[in-house]
Amino acid sequence: MTSLNISLTDPLKAYVEERVASGDFGTPSEFVRNLIRQDKEQRRSRLESELLDALQTKELAIAPEELNGRSLVAVLREKLARP
Fold this sequence. Notes:
With about 80 residues, this protein is mainly alpha-helical. Helix content is about 65%, strand content about 0%.
């Protein structure tokens, strides 16, 4: 693992310390890693939604329920493999 130094305002630092003190996270690093994971998932979800919106054409329509827990890439590959 590597380290990254960040600067926080006093109120943000206090907030992080509160979250750690409350037992929600073991360390400030765990809190920051969790925020990064959440951000990545939100971004992935937003991009997937934007892709679905873009793909709603007559030629290649994908309904959200077609995903059913599968990745968009898997559904696209399946559709594109059909003659």
